[in-house]
Protein backbone atom coordinates (compact mmCIF):
# COMPACT_ATOMS: atom_id res chain seq x y z
CA UNK A 1 0.00 0.00 0.00
CA UNK A 2 1.43 3.35 -0.97
CA UNK A 3 1.79 6.23 1.44
CA UNK A 4 -0.98 8.20 -0.26
CA UNK A 5 -3.33 5.20 0.06
CA UNK A 6 -2.40 4.85 3.74
CA UNK A 7 -3.06 8.54 4.21
CA UNK A 8 -6.42 8.25 2.49
CA UNK A 9 -7.36 5.25 4.67
CA UNK A 10 -6.29 7.05 7.86
CA UNK A 11 -8.24 10.14 6.83
CA UNK A 12 -11.35 8.04 6.20
CA UNK A 13 -10.98 6.39 9.64
CA UNK A 14 -10.58 9.86 11.19
CA UNK A 15 -13.76 11.07 9.47
CA UNK A 16 -15.65 7.96 10.63
CA UNK A 17 -14.58 8.66 14.21
CA UNK A 18 -15.72 12.28 13.86
CA UNK A 19 -19.12 11.12 12.59
CA UNK A 20 -19.48 8.69 15.48
CA UNK A 21 -18.35 11.40 17.89
CA UNK A 22 -21.01 13.83 16.65
CA UNK A 23 -23.68 11.12 17.05
CA UNK A 24 -22.59 10.48 20.63
CA UNK A 25 -22.51 14.23 21.40
CA UNK A 26 -26.06 14.48 20.07
CA UNK A 27 -27.14 11.60 22.32
CA UNK A 28 -25.47 13.33 25.27
CA UNK A 29 -27.41 16.53 24.56
CA UNK A 30 -30.70 14.61 24.45
CA UNK A 31 -29.87 12.97 27.78
CA UNK A 32 -29.07 16.38 29.29
CA UNK A 33 -32.43 17.67 28.09
CA UNK A 34 -34.23 14.67 29.61
CA UNK A 35 -32.29 15.10 32.84
CA UNK A 36 -33.27 18.74 33.09
CA UNK A 37 -36.91 17.97 32.37
CA UNK A 38 -37.07 15.20 34.97
CA UNK A 39 -35.30 17.34 37.58
CA UNK A 40 -37.95 20.01 37.01
CA UNK A 41 -40.68 17.43 37.53
CA UNK A 42 -38.96 16.17 40.68
CA UNK A 43 -38.72 19.74 42.00
CA UNK A 44 -42.41 20.30 41.22
CA UNK A 45 -43.33 17.11 43.10
CA UNK A 46 -41.44 18.46 46.11
CA UNK A 47 -43.72 21.49 46.25
CA UNK A 48 -46.93 19.42 46.07
CA UNK A 49 -48.83 18.21 49.09
CA UNK A 50 -49.33 14.49 49.74
CA UNK A 51 -52.99 14.77 48.75
CA UNK A 52 -52.23 16.41 45.38
CA UNK A 53 -53.83 14.85 42.34
CA UNK A 54 -51.27 13.72 39.79
CA UNK A 55 -52.09 12.50 36.32
CA UNK A 56 -49.87 10.60 33.95
CA UNK A 57 -50.27 10.82 30.19
CA UNK A 58 -50.47 7.32 28.73
CA UNK A 59 -51.04 7.55 25.01
CA UNK A 60 -54.03 9.88 24.53
CA UNK A 61 -55.38 9.26 28.07
CA UNK A 62 -54.63 10.92 31.41
CA UNK A 63 -54.55 8.36 34.24
CA UNK A 64 -54.65 9.27 37.91
CA UNK A 65 -51.48 8.28 39.75
CA UNK A 66 -50.48 8.22 43.40
CA UNK A 67 -47.86 10.81 44.32
CA UNK A 68 -45.50 8.21 45.79
CA UNK A 69 -45.71 6.14 42.61
CA UNK A 70 -45.07 9.19 40.42
CA UNK A 71 -42.10 10.27 42.56
CA UNK A 72 -40.60 6.78 42.39
CA UNK A 73 -41.03 6.73 38.63
CA UNK A 74 -39.23 10.05 38.21
CA UNK A 75 -36.47 8.97 40.62
CA UNK A 76 -35.92 5.77 38.60
CA UNK A 77 -35.80 7.76 35.37
CA UNK A 78 -33.26 10.15 36.87
CA UNK A 79 -31.10 7.20 37.97
CA UNK A 80 -31.30 5.69 34.49
CA UNK A 81 -30.53 8.99 32.75
CA UNK A 82 -27.54 9.62 35.02
CA UNK A 83 -26.16 6.14 34.35
CA UNK A 84 -26.63 6.68 30.60
CA UNK A 85 -24.85 10.04 30.83
CA UNK A 86 -21.91 8.31 32.55
CA UNK A 87 -21.85 5.63 29.85
CA UNK A 88 -21.92 8.24 27.09
CA UNK A 89 -19.20 10.28 28.82
CA UNK A 90 -16.97 7.19 28.84
CA UNK A 91 -17.75 6.62 25.17
CA UNK A 92 -16.90 10.26 24.39
CA UNK A 93 -13.57 9.98 26.19
CA UNK A 94 -12.70 6.81 24.26
CA UNK A 95 -13.65 8.37 20.92
CA UNK A 96 -11.67 11.53 21.68
CA UNK A 97 -8.62 9.38 22.47
CA UNK A 98 -9.10 7.40 19.23
CA UNK A 99 -9.48 10.63 17.28
CA UNK A 100 -6.30 12.09 18.78
CA UNK A 101 -4.39 8.87 18.01
CA UNK A 102 -5.53 8.95 14.35
CA UNK A 103 -4.65 12.62 14.11
CA UNK A 104 -1.10 11.88 15.30
CA UNK A 105 -0.83 9.00 12.83
CA UNK A 106 -1.97 11.26 9.97
CA UNK A 107 0.45 14.04 10.92
CA UNK A 108 3.29 11.51 11.21
CA UNK A 109 2.55 10.04 7.79
CA UNK A 110 2.24 13.50 6.22
CA UNK A 111 5.59 14.50 7.72
CA UNK A 112 7.16 11.28 6.46
CA UNK A 113 5.75 11.88 2.97
CA UNK A 114 7.02 15.49 2.96
CA UNK A 115 10.49 14.37 4.04
CA UNK A 116 10.55 11.68 1.32
CA UNK A 117 9.46 14.25 -1.28
CA UNK A 118 12.13 16.70 -0.11
CA UNK A 119 14.80 13.99 -0.21
CA UNK A 120 13.74 12.99 -3.73
CA UNK A 121 14.31 16.53 -5.06
TrEMBL record:
Query: Which PANTHER family does the UniProt record give?
Result: PREFOLDIN SUBUNIT 6
Q: Which residues form a coiled coil?
A: 7-44, 78-112
Protein family: Belongs to the prefoldin subunit beta family.
- SUPFAM superfamilies, alphabetized: Prefoldin
GO CC term (a single one): prefoldin complex
Tell me where on the tree of life, at the top rank, the source sits. Eukaryota
Kindly provide the name given to this protein in its UniProt entry. Answer: Similar to Prefoldin subunit 6 acc. no. P52553
Cited InterPro entries: PFD_beta-like, Prefoldin
Pfam families per the UniProt record, alphabetical: Prefoldin_2
GO biological process assignments:
chaperone-mediated protein complex assembly; protein folding
Amino acid sequence: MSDSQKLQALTQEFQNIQTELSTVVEARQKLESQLSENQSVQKEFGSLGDDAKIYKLVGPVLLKQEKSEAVMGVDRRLEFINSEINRVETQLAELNAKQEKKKIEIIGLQTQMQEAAAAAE
